Amino acid sequence: MVEILILDEADRLLDLGFQKSIDTILSYLPRQRRTGLFSATQTKEVQDLIRAGLRNPVLISVSEKATQSTPIC
Question: Tens digits of per-residue pLDDT, 34-66?
Answer without folding.
Answer: 999 999 999 999 999 999 989 899 988 887 766
